[in-house]
Design a protein that fits this description.
With 120 residues, the chain is an all-alpha fold. The protein has one domain: Up-down Bundle (3 helical TM bundles of succinate and fumarate reductases). Helices cover 81% and strands 0% of the residues.
Length: 120
Amino acid sequence: MVISMVRPGYLSLIQYVSAIILIFLVLWHLILRFPPLQGVESFIDTMKPEILYEEITVYGVLLVLLLVAVVFHGVNGIRSMLLEWSSNKYWTLIVNLLAIIVFLVLIVVGIHTVLYVTPP
């Protein structure tokens, strides 16, 4: 439906763009876990609830962007692999619908986690 209305070339382009975005966002996400930047001694200490809460409140938009990029890249990649198995019209419809449903469910759960995090 929505995915099938988009030309395959555009989905490939979006897949490549999401990969480039992911390189920078994952690097940023890993840098946040660097202990001296958080003023703590070890990696485990960077996962304390008060530090995570502060990061979510300060970097919430970037975390949502990371979420969308990861979920789109993963779901579209799996969708592409499944569509290579068969070119049946019904198989394509089922795979596209499942991809949309999985994408939406993961995005809703992830955004809910970011928006409704409670302070420690």
